Amino acid sequence: MSGKIRKTSGRGRLFDSVLDTIGDTPVIRINNLAPDNVTIYVKAEAFNPGASVKDRLAVNIIEAAEREGKLKPGQTVVEATSGNTGIGLAMVCAAKGYPLVITMADSFSVERRRLMRMLGAKVVLTPRAQKGLGMYNKAVELAEKHGWFLAHQFETPANADIHEATTAREIIGDFDGEKLDYFVSGYGTGGTVSGVGRVLRKERPETKIILTEPANAALVGSGTAQQRGPDGAPAASHPAFEPHPIQGWTPDFIPLVLQEALDKKYYDELIPIPGPEGIAWAKKLAQKEGILTGISGGSTFAVSMKIAEKAAPGSVILCMLPDTGERYLSTPLFEGIPEDMDDEEREIMKSTPGYHME
Question: Known catalytic residue: 296?
Answer without folding.
Answer: yes
